[in-house]
């Protein structure tokens, strides 16, 4: 068997190839792209023999283990397509492993390639090979993550908008309690400062409310106009002019993000609907097309990726960790996790409260013991992830009585 450490950079890869005894067979700096990958194949082929073939398949590439600090990109995809066993290693773990070779803090690209090769040679059983997810679910993950990132971006711009209005135009916050509403964005773009807002006619406000399909637009327009024209403290004109530019820019960004989020949401729902696991996922309480797509995409669809429900829970970050030393034992939340999946499972647990009597009873029981809201949601999410694992393993849809037998029996 051969063990390859690949320390990647934007333009090149530092490579070290070792044998089973840890002897360095080759070392090179390869360029990114086809030429570099071809040279890597040549280096590996120079040291492979027929005796290195996989005993089950006879495939030579299966006896090559590659350690690299990423699981994405064309280079990684090409390594997987070539048949190598690729281990995407956590940079934090690699940094700790590097300390085994020296405590001076010295670091180099060649040294990192050596450390990566050592990890896959000695400790590969403690690391997970790259998941064998389908291209369809990998594509779904990219779109779902972009959709989620745009939502997070919109939230950041919304917070900046609210902060600016609070500092120079607090009346707008009273007139528009929901700054994300279409009529609020339209009117703030038209009148981003107190002077122009006070000149807004009732007919323009009413028209904006009607376009947003609000009830009783005339009554609401009168209330909004009164709030915008009420006496209030003012900033100096140059400061108000600067704030007005900030408000206009934020409003336009939020409006554009709203459009893109809607378009991406349609793409996510369409891609998710074509996946064979979609019916099982959406049968879970609290999961619809978009949130279900995020959960499925982050977990992946490799049937052999998770040995059991505990492994899936650990990856989701819903299961706690224990720190024990002597007589001291502390159970803590798991914060080192996939944050995209962690956010999705937290929302899933919250949505399940109204969709599943068993989930609601479980949550209420936790709260009655003095557990906080977010901690209770995390424990509920942990249970829901285990239920999803069982449904995917047995290829069955969610059943309330099977999922919560004791709670549903007590309620009956």
Task: Put the structure in a nutshell.
With 412 residues, this protein is α/β, with parallel strands linked by helices.
3D architecture notes:
This protein has 412 residues and is of the alpha/beta class. The protein folds into three domains: 129 residues, Nucleotidyltransferase, domain 5 (2-Layer Sandwich); 132 residues; 134 residues, no CATH class. It is built from 19 helices and seven strands. Strands 3-2-1-4-5 form a five-stranded mixed β-sheet. A two-stranded antiparallel sheet has the order 6-7. Helix 7 runs antiparallel to helix 11, helix 9 packs across helix 10 and helix 11 crosses helix 13. The chain is globular and about 85 Å long. The mean pLDDT is 90.
The multimeric state of the shown protein is single chain
Radius of gyration: 28 Å
Number of strands: 7
User: Total domains, how many?
Assistant: 3
Structural class: alpha/beta
Distance between the termini: 60 Å
Task: Pick out its properties.
single chain, 412 residues, Nucleotidyltransferase, domain 5, 3 domains, 19 helices, 7 strands, globular
Topology:
Layout: E1 2-8, E2 12-18, E3 24-31, H1 34-47, E4 64-68, H2 74-81, E5 85-88, H3 91-98, H4 109-122, H5 135-168, H6 170-175, H7 182-190, H8 194-198, H9 202-211, H10 217-229, H11 237-273, H12 278-282, H13 289-299, H14 309-316, E6 321-325, E7 328-332, H15 339-355, H16 357-368, H17 373-394, H18 400-403, H19 405-411
Parallel strand pairs: 1-4, 4-5
Antiparallel strand pairs: 1-2, 2-3, 6-7
Helix pairs in contact: 5-11, 5-13, 7-9, 7-11, 9-10, 11-13, 13-15, 14-17, 15-16, 15-17, 16-17
Organism: Blastococcus jejuensis
Domain Transposase IS116/IS110/IS902 C-terminal: 279-363
InterPro entries: Transp_IS110-like_N, Transpos_IS110, Transposase_20
């Amino acid at each position: 068997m051969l063990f390859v450490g690949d320390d990647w950079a934007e333009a090149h890869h530092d490579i070290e190839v070792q044998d089973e005894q840890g002897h360095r067979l080759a070392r090179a700096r390869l360029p990114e792209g086809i030429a570099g990958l071809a040279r890597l194949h040549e280096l590996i082929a120079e040291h492979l023999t027929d005796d290195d073939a996989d005993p089950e398949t006879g495939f030579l590439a299966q006896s090559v283990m590659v350690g690299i600090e990423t699981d994405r990109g064309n280079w990684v995809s090409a390594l997987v397509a070539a048949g190598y066993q690729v281990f995407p290693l956590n940079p934090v773990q690699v940094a700790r492993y590097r300390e085994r070779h020296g405590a001076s803090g010295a670091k180099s690209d060649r040294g990192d390639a050596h450390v990566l090769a050592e990890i896959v040679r000695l400790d590969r059983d403690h690391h997970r090979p790259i998941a064998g997810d389908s291209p369809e679910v990998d594509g779904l993950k990219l779109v779902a993550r972009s959709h989620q990132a745009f939502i997070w971006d919109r939230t950041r711009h919304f917070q900046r908008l609210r902060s600016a209005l609070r500092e120079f135009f607090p009346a707008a916050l009273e007139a528009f309690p929901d700054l994300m509403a279409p009529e609020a964005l339209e009117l703030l773009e038209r009148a981003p400062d107190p002077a122009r807002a006070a000149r807004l006619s009732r007919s323009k406000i009413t028209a904006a409310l009607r376009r947003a399909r609000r009830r009783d637009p005339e009554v609401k327009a009168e209330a909004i106009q009164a709030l915008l024209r009420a006496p209030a403290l003012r900033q100096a004109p140059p400061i108000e002019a600067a704030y007005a530019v900030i408000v206009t820019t934020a409003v336009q960004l939020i409006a554009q993000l709203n459009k893109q989020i809607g378009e991406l949401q349609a793409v996510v729902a369409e891609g998710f609907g074509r996946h064979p696991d979609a019916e099982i996922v959406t049968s879970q309480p609290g999961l619809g097309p978009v949130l279900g797509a995020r959960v499925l995409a982050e977990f992946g669809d490799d049937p052999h990726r998770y040995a059991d429900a505990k492994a899936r829970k650990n990856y989701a970050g819903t299961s706690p960790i224990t720190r024990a030393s002597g007589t001291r034992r502390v159970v803590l939340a798991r914060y080192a996790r996939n944050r995209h999946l962690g956010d999705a499972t937290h929302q899933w647990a919250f949505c399940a409260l109204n969709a599943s009597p068993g989930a609601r009873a479980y949550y209420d029981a936790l709260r009655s013991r003095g557990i906080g809201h977010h901690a209770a949601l995390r424990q509920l999410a942990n249970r829901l992830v285990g239920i999803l694992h069982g449904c995917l393993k047995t290829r069955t849809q969610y059943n309330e009585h099977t999922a919560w037998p004791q709670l549903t029996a007590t309620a009956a």
